[in-house]
């Protein structure tokens, strides 16, 4: 055997396996988010992971970090340039155009899945990561913006996520941004030497991005720079003010961050981010904004859009660090079924089906082992209740119930009829 063959195969750097029990937490997070979305009339759209490279060049913008240095681009066997999607909005808009979904229609859509960016892997930053995103097409008004912000707010509340702040800003319309861009460049050009390296590079290509530089010296210089909000048109100002009014009415707290700009070119007017402090540099869990020119830019009829994307790795990690209720609950086994002998095993299988049908986590001990070992396994897996069918119980069609949950007061085992198992277990779990 060659040395090659013996070498251990590993996942690609920055692309993670997600293992149990974490997968269960992921499922719970996804389910809750999806319930919130469908509760407000958003429908799922499933999109390919690979697209023509051209799609991202035309939508995200050539001067952005994503396009200039983060995309996984390759030629396929026909020599076509393809790219693993770095985000979902471009694909969503492309699909909407392709299937005539925007023509005289409004759409509330969501998607969820892996995205790919060749970044330096670190906590909260990976090369394959997952986004759950929602997009609303066909509305220009701030009510839809408040609705989508409320969607995220609801998700966080139902997930039990704490300490997440909402920041909003308005980038204004195209004309505003051109004027502001000029003013910012005029202010920064004479100060170029004092800017960090990235910002120097962006000064001509994408000066707005300098605003969210993390460099302290650059931020110091920016303190004296022109402020975007001074350039907003009357219409943009009113739009932004109305959004704020809606948020106040919804009881959703927010801060205005006049330096908040997004890393993609297609945004206008409202942009927002949800930030979770205490998670280091990768503190943004969810980000989004308005993109009224995107659909037209990639070849569709002008259609306004507004949406967000949430980073699920960051969300899940924060929930775990916060020990949120949902993180603790996940992987909890409600019932562990213990039995001896084939007749008893058949009965246990039967009870497992009944318990699973009412939504309980019921795990059956399969394979030969002593009662003692089966109890040990139940305990080790953190089951709350054990059901026991020994030879005696099997003959009498009864089942023993024992509480294993350590936080409960110790109780002796009780015996009930197998036919009553659903009621007995439900009552028992409720008492815990
Ligand atoms: P950042 O400033 O952190 O690089 P971004 O502006 O590139 O973020 P978006 O393109 O707006 O991020 O993506 C939305 C969300 O997706 C981010 O707020 C984050 O939660 C998540 N995200 C983006 N890139 C990554 C990544 N490489 N790994 C994990 N999550 C990511
Ligand atoms: Mg980024």
Characterization of this structure:
The longest helix is centred in the N-terminal third of the chain and has 18 residues, at 22-39. The mean pLDDT is 93. The chain is an alpha+beta fold and 432 residues long. α2 packs antiparallel against α6 and α6 runs parallel beside α10 (234-250). It is 40% helix and 20% strand. A hairpin with a 7-residue loop joins β9 (268-276) and β10 (284-290). The chain contains 17 helices and 16 strands. Magnesium ion binds next to loops. Adenosine-5'-triphosphate binds at residues 87, 117, 119, 124-126, 129, 131, 263, 282, 284-287, 309, 311, 313-314.
Secondary structure blueprint with pairings:
Blueprint: H1 3-6, H2 22-39, E1 43-44, E2 50-52, H3 53-59, H4 65-70, E3 72-75, E4 81-84, H5 89-98, E5 107-116, E6 128-137, H6 142-159, E7 164-170, H7 174-188, H8 197-205, H9 216-222, H10 234-250, E8 255-256, E9 268-276, E10 284-290, H11 294-297, E11 305-311, H12 312-321, H13 325-329, E12 335-339, H14 342-357, E13 362-364, H15 371-380, E14 385-389, H16 391-396, E15 398-403, E16 414-417, H17 421-430
Parallel strand pairs: 1-5, 7-8, 12-13, 12-14
Antiparallel strand pairs: 2-4, 3-4, 5-6, 6-11, 7-9, 9-10, 10-11, 14-15, 15-16
Bound molecules: adenosine-5'-triphosphate and magnesium ion.
What features would you highlight for this structure?
single chain; 432 residues; alpha+beta; BirA Bifunctional Protein, domain 2; Rossmann fold; 2 domains; 8-stranded mixed sheet; 5-stranded mixed sheet; 16 strands; binds adenosine-5'-triphosphate; binds magnesium ion
């Amino acid at each position: 055997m060659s040395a090659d063959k013996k070498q251990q195969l590993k996942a690609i750097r920055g692309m993670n396996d997600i293992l149990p029990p974490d997968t269960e937490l992921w499922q719970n997070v996804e389910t809750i988010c999806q319930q919130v979305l469908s509760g407000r009339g958003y429908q799922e759209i499933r999109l390919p992971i690979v697209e023509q490279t051209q799609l991202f060049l035309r939508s995200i913008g050539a001067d952005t970090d994503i396009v200039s240095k983060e995309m996984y681009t390759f030629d396929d066997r026909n020599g076509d340039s393809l790219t693993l999607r770095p985000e979902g909005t471009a694909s969503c808009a492309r699909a909407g155009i392709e299937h005539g979904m925007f023509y005289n229609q409004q759409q509330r859509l969501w998607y969820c899945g892996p995205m790919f960016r060749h970044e330096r892997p670190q906590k909260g930053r990976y090369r394959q990561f997952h986004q759950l995103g929602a997009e609303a097409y066909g509305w220009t008004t701030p009510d839809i913006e408040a609705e989508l912000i409320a969607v995220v707010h609801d998700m966080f509340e139902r997930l039990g996520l704490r300490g997440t702040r909402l920041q909003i800003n308005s980038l204004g319309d195209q004309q505003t941004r051109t004027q502001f861009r000029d003013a910012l460049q005029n202010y920064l050009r004479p100060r170029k030497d004092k800017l960090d390296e990235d910002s120097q590079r962006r000064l001509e290509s994408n000066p707005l991005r300098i605003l969210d530089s993390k460099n302290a010296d650059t931020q110091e210089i920016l303190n004296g720079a022109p402020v975007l909000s001074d350039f907003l048109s009357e219409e943009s100002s009113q739009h932004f003010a109305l959004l704020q009014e809606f948020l106040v009415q919804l009881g959703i707290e927010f801060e205005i961050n006049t330096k908040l700009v997004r890393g993609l070119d297609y945004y206008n007017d409202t942009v927002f981010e949800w930030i979770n402090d205490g998670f280091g540099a990768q503190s943004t869990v969810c980000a989004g904004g308005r993109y009224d020119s995107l659909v037209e830019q990639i070849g569709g009829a002008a259609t306004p859009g507004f949406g967000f994307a949430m980073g699920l790795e960051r969300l899940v990690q924060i929930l775990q660090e916060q020990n949120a209720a949902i993180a603790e609950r996940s992987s909890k086994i409600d019932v562990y079924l213990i039995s001896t002998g084939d007749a008893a095993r058949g009965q246990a299988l039967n009870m497992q089906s009944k318990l699973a049908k009412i939504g309980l986590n019921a795990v059956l001990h399969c394979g030969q082992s002593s009662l003692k070992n089966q109890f040990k396994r139940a305990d080790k897996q953190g089951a709350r209740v054990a059901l026991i069918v020994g030879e005696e119980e099997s003959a009498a069609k009864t089942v023993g119930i024992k509480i294993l949950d350590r936080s409960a007061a110790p109780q002796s085992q009780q015996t009930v009829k197998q036919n009553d198992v659903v009621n007995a277990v439900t009552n028992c779990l409720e008492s815990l």
